[in-house]
Amino acid sequence: MCAAVDLHPSGYYTWLKHPVSQREREDKRLLAYIKQYWLESGGHYGYRNIYLDLKEAKIQCGRDRVLRLMQQTNIKAERGYKTPKGYYSGKPDNTAPNVLKREFVVSSPNQWWVSDITYIHTHEGFLFLAVVMDLYARNIVGWSMSERMTDDVVLDALTMAYWRRKPTGTVKFHSDQGSQYASRNFRKLLSKLNIERSMSRRGNCWDNAVAESFFSNLKKEQIRRIKYKTREHAKQAMFHYIEMFYNPKRRHTSNGRISPNEYERLYFQNQKSV
């Protein structure tokens, strides 16, 4: 029989002595789901978020079991290279007081927006990305990309945020003291849109920690895992990360580990029921 199925007799007798257990079969089935959810996250998720995906899908397992299977098969959240050194952009010509004062927890959408700029390496040169985040659900409500770090990149990001959200009251807007945010054009746009300004203290990144945290995750989960050949390639990747993964799917600790879009949806659902 062994010759017929091209199996060495020693392997057959080993199997007879140690048949595959029910636990091993369950582990194999569970591992297939783990790999599926890990791939769907783009390789971003560790065992905690994979466990929550499984739980949401009504797949019974323990968190420690997920960790064990991921460790055994070397499935882990992918991270990138170390942060490159930044550069000094000079003293801004017009600043605003720090009104936010690190009070990052707000009670409803469109109370506070925070913003920041980062840069992405490509073979063609830098690509600059500006984002505007609503502090309530931590969703990115506006973004823009440019080959040059001028005030246009933040003007476009703010314009997108405003027309997407159409706030009915006064929104407060917090940023660092970058020259783009201190520019005359940007101040004029804020005034036109009835948006109040707030700025971090100089050299204090913790005053804008939530926006900094978004870029930290973006770099770990997306930017540093890939060397982009062109700016267009990088633009497509940033669009996919923000609109197809981060806002609708990425579990956020401050939201009770549900996505920003879902957290905001629950807010408006609760408002209707009041």
TrEMBL record:
Domain annotation Integrase catalytic: ranges: 105-268
Pfam families given in the database record: HTH_21, rve, rve_2
Record GO terms (molecular function): nucleic acid binding
Gene3D superfamilies registered for this protein in UniProt: Ribonuclease H-like superfamily/Ribonuclease H
Biological process according to GO: DNA integration
PANTHER family per the UniProt record, alphabetical: TRANSPOSASE INSF FOR INSERTION SEQUENCE IS3B-RELATED (PTHR46889), TRANSPOSASE INSO FOR INSERTION SEQUENCE ELEMENT IS911B-RELATED (PTHR46889:SF4)
Protein name: Integrase catalytic domain-containing protein
Protein species of origin: marine sediment metagenome
